[in-house]
Specification:
Blueprint (H helix, E strand, L loop, with lengths): L2 H5 L5 E4 L8 E3 L9 E4 L12 H6 L4 E4 L9 E4 L2 H12 L8 E6 L4 H14 L4 E4 L3 E4 L2 E4 L7 H13 L4 E5 L2 H5 L10 E4 L7 H4 L2 H14 L13 E5 L4 H8 L3 E6 L6 E8 L4 E7 L2 E7 L4 H16 L4 H9 L9 E2 L7 E5 L4 H14 L4 E5 L9 H12 L2 E4 L9 H15 L6 E3 L3 H11 L5 E5 L6 E4 L2 E4 L2 H12 L3
Parallel strand pairs: 2-3, 3-4, 4-5, 6-10, 6-11, 7-10, 11-12, 12-13, 13-14, 18-22, 19-20, 19-22, 20-21
Antiparallel strand pairs: 1-5, 7-8, 8-9, 14-15, 15-16, 17-18, 23-24
Helix pairs in contact: 3-5, 4-10, 4-11, 8-9, 10-11, 12-13, 13-14, 15-16
Bound molecules: ligand UAG, adenosine-5'-triphosphate (ATP) and 2,6-diaminopimelic acid.
Ligand UAG binds next to α6.
Cofactor: Mg(2+)
Function: Catalyzes the addition of meso-diaminopimelic acid to the nucleotide precursor UDP-N-acetylmuramoyl-L-alanyl-D-glutamate (UMAG) in the biosynthesis of bacterial cell-wall peptidoglycan.
InterPro entries: Mur-like_cat_sf, Mur_ligase_C, Mur_ligase_C_dom_sf, Mur_ligase_cen, Mur_ligase_N, MurE/MurF_N, UDP-N-AcMur-Glu-dNH2Pim_ligase
C-alpha cells in the first residue's frame, strides 16, 4: 500500500518525501521491524518511539509515521498524534476486518474473560465460527495461542482480526480493557454488541480516579452507534448490568439499543431463585424470549451475572433460550477461575484469578457460603499496579478468611516485602488478630503452609494468578503455576 493512500485516511497530515513509497507491513516496535515496514513512532508513557526511528530504518523500514521530523532518510508521514493515527492506519491497511464479522466486545473490571468464554461456548455450540481474544487466549479458526495482554495494540489487533475474517469467522468475541479504550487500541472497530460487566476499583495507577476509569470504559458505549465504522444498516446493542450504577451513565451515552441484565433490578434478562453450591449454581432466568431454569457448573453469584450477560448476548443474536441453556449448562469452570485442584486431598483447594478488592469479595464470599470448616486464603498484590487497592484487598480477604497467607503475586519491579507491608494496614483495620495471618514473600512456601494447615471441611483459596503459568520478578518470568505448586504441596504432605 502506498504511503499517500494511508495519508488520505487522516484529516490532518502531510508527507515528507515520496508519497508513492510502498509499505508492506506496519510496526510500532523497532525491534520487530521487517524490510518494507511502515514504522510508527509512538510517544509512549515510558519512552518515545521517535528515538528508535534510525534503528527501525536500519532494520529495513521503508517509511515512518512521525509527530515531528526526525533525521533519517526515508519518506515520513507527519501526523498530529501517532497513537491516534496508528488505529486509523491499521484499520485501513488491514481492510477493516471488524466489518466482516459480528464483534462482541466485553468491558468491566471483573468478569470479562469468563463472560467472553461463555458467549463463545453458546455461539460455537450453535455452529457459528467464533474467534476469541482476551487475557488468557486468542482463538483464530482452530488455532489457539496464549496471550500476554487483555487487548492488543491497534496494529496487532487489526492484523489478527484480518486473520479471523479470512478464516470465515462469524463472531469475534473480545475483551476490551479500559487501557485499550483510553489508548485508542480498538478505535475503528465496529462492534455489534458492547457488554458491560461491572465497575469497581482497579487500575487507579493508570486512570487516576474512578471517574476517569468509568469514563474510559464508557468509550465502548459512547462510540457504539455514534462512530461511523461501516455497515450502518445493522443494529447495535449496549448490554448493561442493571445492578451496577455506572450502567445508567453508559445508557445515556450510547446511540445503540440498550438491553439490561441483572439480579436485583427489573432487567430485560434477570435471574431469580439463585441456589449456590460448591458444585455449581441453579437459577431461574426470565428473559424477553421466555423463562428457563438453569443449572450451571459455574460457582458463585458473580458467575450468575456472567451467565446472564452471555445469555442476553446470545438471545440478541436470535438464538433460542433452550439452545442457550444446553450450551451454557455444558460449560465447566473457566481456566483458573475457582478451578478445583484435586490431588486426592481430603479438603477443597481452589485457584482463582481474583486480583481486585471486588473480585476477592466475590470469590471469598462464595467460598465462605459453602465452607463447613475454615477458609484459608493465600493471596498477594501485583507490583507496578494500583497501590491503593492493596490495603482494600487485605481488608476484604481478612473479612472472609479464618487464616491468611499474604504473599507475592507478580512483584514485577517492586520490592516484594514492601508490597506485603502495603497490604497489612487493611488486615489490621479489619481487626484480624496477628496470629491469624502470616507474611511470606515466597509464594510456594505460602501455598505449602496453607496446604499443611488444612483439615477436612476446610477450603484453601489461592487467589490472584489463576491461569498464569509464571511469576514475574524484575522483568523475568519464572515458571510458576499455582495449580501445579498446590498439587506438589499436597503430594508432599500426603506422600506416605
Ligand atoms: C499503559 C500501557 O498500556 N502501556 C503500553 C504502551 O506503552 P506506551 O505506549 O507508553 O509505550 P512505551 O513503552 O513508552 O514505548 C513507546 C513506543 O516505543 C516503542 N519502542 C520501545 C522500545 C524500543 O526499543 N523500541 C521501540 O520501538 C514501543 O513499541 C512503543 O511503540 O504500549 C507498550 C507497547 O505496546 C506496552 O508495552 C505498554 O503496556 C504496558 C507494559 C502494560 O503493562 N500495560 C498493561 C497495564 C495493560 O495494557 N493492561 C490491560 C489489561 C488491564 C485489565 O486488567 O483490564 C491490557 O489490555 O492488557
Ligand atoms: N462478574 C463478576 N463480578 C465480580 N467478580 C468477578 C466476576 N466474574 C469473575 N469475578 C472474579 O474476578 C476474577 C477474574 O475474572 P475474569 O478473568 O473473568 O475477569 P477479567 O475481567 O477478565 O479480569 P482481567 O481483565 O483483569 O484479566 C475471577 O477469578 C473471580 O474471582
Ligand atoms: N490484567 C491485570 C492482571 C493482574 C493479575 C495479577 N496476577 C497481577 O499481576 O497483578 C493487570 O495487568 O493488572
Amino acid at each position: 500500500m502506498q504511503l499517500k493512500e494511508l495519508a488520505s485516511q487522516l484529516a490532518v497530515s502531510h508527507i515528507l518525501g515520496d508519497g508513492e513509497t510502498v509499505v508492506t507491513g506496519i510496526q510500532t516496535d523497532s525491534r520487530k521491524v521487517r524490510p518494507g515496514d511502515l514504522f510508527l513512532c509512538i510517544s509512549g508513557l515510558v519512552t518515545d518511539g521517535h528515538q528508535y526511528a534510525a534503528k527501525a530504518v536500519q532494520a529495513g523500514a521503508a517509511a515512518l509515521v512521525v509527530e515531528h521530523d526526525v533525521d533519517v532518510e526515508v519518506p515520513k508521514l507527519v501526523v498530529k498524534d501517532s497513537r491516534y493515527a496508528m488505529a486509523v492506519i491499521a484499520c485501513h491497511f488491514y481492510g477493516y476486518p471488524s466489518r466482516e464479522m459480528k464483534m462482541i466486545g466485553v468491558t468491566g473490571t471483573n468478569g470479562k474473560t469468563t463472560s467472553t468464554y461463555l458467549i463463545d461456548a453458546i455461539l460455537s455450540g450453535q455452529g457459528f465460527r467464533t474467534g476469541l481474544m482476551g487475557t488468557i487466549q486468542m482463538k483464530i479458526g482452530s488455532q489457539v495461542t496464549d496471550m500476554e495482554r487483555t487487548t492488543l495494540e491497534a496494529v496487532d489487533l487489526q492484523r489478527h482480526l484480518r486473520q479471523m475474517a479470512d478464516v470465515g469467522t462469524d463472531y469475534c468475541i473480545m475483551e476490551v480493557s479500559s487501557h485499550a479504550l483510553d489508548l485508542g487500541r480498538v478505535k475503528g472497530c465496529r462492534f455489534r454488541t458492547g457488554v458491560f460487566t461491572n465497575l469497581t476499583q482497579d487500575h487507579l495507577d493508570y486512570h487516576g480516579t474512578m471517574e476517569r476509569y468509568q469514563a474510559a470504559k464508557g468509550l465502548l458505549f459512547s462510540r457504539l452507534g455514534n462512530e461511523f465504522t461501516g455497515r450502518s444498516d445493522e443494529r447495535q446493542f449496549a448490554l448493561l448490568n442493571a445492578d451496577d450504577p455506572a450502567s445508567a451513565e453508559y445508557a445515556k451515552q450510547t446511540a445503540a439499543q440498550v438491553v439490561t441484565y441483572g439480579i436485583d433490578s427489573e432487567a430485560d434478562v434477570r435471574a431469580e431463585r439463585i441456589e449456590i453450591s460448591s458444585k455449581g449454581t441453579r437459577f431461574r432466568c426470565v428473559t424477553f424470549k421466555g423463562t428457563a431454569d438453569f443449572q450451571t457448573k459455574l460457582v458463585g453469584k458473580f458467575n450468575v451475572y456472567n451467565s446472564l450477560a452471555a445469555i442476553a448476548a446470545a438471545l440478541l443474536e436470535g438464538i433460542e433460550l433452550d439452545a442457550v441453556k444446553s450450551s451454557l449448562e455444558a460449560v465447566h469452570a473457566v481456566d483458573g477461575r475457582l478451578e478445583v485442584v484435586d490431588a486426592g486431598q481430603p479438603f477443597l483447594v481452589l485457584v482463582d484469578y481474583a486480583h481486585t478488592p471486588d473480585g476477592l469479595d466475590n470469590a471469598l464470599s462464595t467460598v465462605k457460603q459453602f465452607t463447613k470448616g475454615r477458609v484459608l486464603c493465600v493471596f498477594g498484590c501485583g507490583g507496578d499496579r494500583d497501590r491503593t487497592k492493596r490495603p482494600l484487598m487485605g481488608k476484604v480477604t481478612a473479612k472472609y478468611s479464618d487464616y491468611l497467607y499474604v504473599t507475592s503475586d507478580n512483584p514485577r519491579t517492586e520490592d516484594p516485602g514492601q508490597i506485603l507491608l502495603d497490604i497489612v494496614p487493611g488486615i489490621e483495620q479489619s481487626g484480624m488478630p496477628a496470629e491469624r495471618y502470616e507474611l511470606i514473600a515466597d509464594r510456594r512456601e505460602a501455598i505449602e503452609k496453607a496446604i499443611a494447615r488444612a483439615t477436612p471441611d476446610d477450603v484453601v483459596l489461592i487467589a490472584g494468578k489463576g491461569h498464569e503459568a509464571y511469576q514475574e520478578i524484575m522483568g523475568v518470568k519464572h515458571d510458576f503455576d499455582d495449580r501445579q505448586v498446590a498439587k506438589e504441596a499436597i503430594r508432599g504432605r500426603f506422600r506416605d
